[in-house]
């Protein structure tokens, strides 16, 4: 049976279209639709229920060693109050999951994809080392994201901290009314925004109402998973199960900036060193349709009459008014500016490889 987040009844009252997603009953969209919600986040501010995401707490004397061992990025480089984007890899270099790592005073919080909670937990437990405790707090944690150019003034109304001083990929412990929260500034949309984590689930509906009230002057609206997907794709942020999976590695996925081969040993390091030495044979490229047509996952990609890959993510971009997508293509065709074709149903439609992101006018503060 699918789980429900603490905000499920709110979604129903708001007329959301509820779907099964990653083992949860989640809102895919509300009454005004995905395009409206997408533009609301780009132009003003929207709020998301992300309570389906997974959260693990790592503590113990060897916590850093463990998180270093299981991640490709260098966790030792972040200070208390910072977040880090990373991937966990299998020994062959394939991706277990991508995640955010929060460094606290005496612990690390790993925020993982909803569809991978059980798999990630099992994998981490299999690689546990002495002096480490791993706790799954996913079912005890509610998460609301507020995203958009007007996100800061909305959330500022609810906390005493000066949010102008909270940097990108940083977090603080604070309170909203009597509820202790972790407030971070990361986001998955290309816009400025905040994530609010808390474990007083009985206060969930009250917290939602407080944010909705604080955002009234900015015409805040709830946003579903449909717009979250189009927003992330316009930034070419990868989605596990589409752009990345156990059969892809971070280097060919365009995530090499996050792979720190010189930091010391970690799971997958030898395989990734080999990939780097031999050079990638394919790459995840972003492309824009040059003619009418919407690319969808698994559509075939062609060049010079030959199939060179397939689409992993694709949609009609609400911001650009064009079809956009990603796909793995052979090495010879991965450069920006290359002309390719996407087979949409039975017709080959022209497209062009571009430099990411697709949408370049976001309010994100880096």
Broad CATH class of the largest domain: Alpha Beta
Tally of individual domains:
3
Structural class estimated from helices and strands: alpha+beta
CATH architecture of the largest domain: 2-Layer Sandwich
What is the assigned CATH homologous superfamily of the largest domain?
Probable tRNA modification gtpase trme, domain 1
Low-confidence stretches: none
Count of alpha/pi helices: 8
Strand content: 25-35%
Spatial order of the strands forming the largest sheet: 11-12-13-10-4-14
Nearest-integer average pLDDT: 97
Largest sheet: 6 strands, mixed
- The gross shape turns out to be globular
**DSSP, total strands:** 20
Radius of gyration: 21 Å
- CATH fold naming of the largest domain: Gyrase A, domain 2
**SSE ordering:** EHEEHEEHEEEHEEHEEEHEHHEEEEEE
Helix content: 10-25%
Distance between the termini: 40 Å
Topology of helices and strands:
Elements: E1 3-4, H1 8-13, E2 17-21, E3 24-29, H2 34-43, E4 46-49, E5 54-59, H3 63-70, E6 83-89, E7 95-103, E8 108-112, H4 117-126, E9 133-136, E10 142-147, H5 151-156, E11 171-176, E12 179-184, E13 193-198, H6 204-214, E14 221-222, H7 225-234, H8 269-278, E15 282-289, E16 300-303, E17 306-316, E18 323-330, E19 339-344, E20 347-353
Parallel strand pairs: 1-3, 4-14
Antiparallel strand pairs: 2-3, 4-10, 5-8, 5-9, 6-7, 7-8, 10-13, 11-12, 12-13, 15-18, 15-20, 16-17, 16-19, 17-18, 19-20
């Amino acid at each position: 049976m699918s789980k429900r987040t603490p905000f499920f009844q709110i979604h129903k009252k708001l007329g959301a279209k509820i779907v099964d997603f990653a083992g949860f009953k989640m809102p895919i969209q509300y009454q005004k639709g995905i395009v409206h919600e997408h533009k609301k986040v780009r132009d003003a501010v929207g709020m998301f229920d992300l309570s389906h995401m997974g959260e693990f707490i790592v503590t113990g004397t060897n916590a850093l060693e463990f998180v270093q061992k299981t991640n490709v990025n260098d966790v030792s480089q972040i200070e208390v109050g910072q977040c880090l984007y990373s991937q966990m890899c299998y020994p062959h270099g394939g991706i277990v999951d991508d995640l955010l790592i929060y460094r606290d005073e005496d612990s690390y919080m790993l925020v993982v994809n909803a569809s991978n909670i059980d798999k990630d937990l099992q994998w981490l437990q299999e690689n546990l080392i002495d002096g480490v405790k791993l706790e799954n707090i996913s079912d005890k944690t509610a998460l609301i994201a507020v995203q958009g150019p007007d996100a800061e003034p909305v959330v500022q109304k609810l906390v005493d901290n000066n949010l102008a001083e909270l940097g990108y990929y940083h977090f603080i412990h604070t309170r909203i009314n009597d509820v202790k929260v972790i407030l971070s500034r990361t986001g998955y949309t290309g816009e400025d925004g905040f994530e609010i984590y808390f474990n007083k689930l009985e206060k969930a509906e009250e917290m939602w109402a407080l944010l909705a009230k604080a955002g009234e002057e900015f015409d805040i609206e709830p946003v579903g998973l449909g717009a979250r997907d189009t927003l992330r794709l316009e930034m070419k942020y990868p989605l596990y199960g589409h752009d990345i999976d156990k059969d892809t590695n971070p280097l060919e996925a365009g995530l090499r900036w996050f792979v720190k081969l010189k930091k010391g040993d970690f799971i997958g390091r030898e395989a990734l060193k080999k990939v780097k030495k031999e050079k990638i044979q394919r790459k995840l490229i972003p492309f824009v349709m040059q003619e009418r047509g919407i690319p969808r996952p698994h559509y075939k990609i062609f060049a010079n009459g030959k199939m060179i890959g397939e689409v992993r993510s694709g949609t009609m971009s609400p911001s650009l008014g064009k079809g956009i997508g990603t796909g793995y293509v052979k090495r010879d065709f991965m450069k920006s500016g290359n002309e390719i074709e996407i087979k949409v149903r039975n017709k080959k439609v022209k497209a062009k490889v571009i430099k990411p992101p697709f949408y370049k006018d976001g309010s994100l503060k880096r």
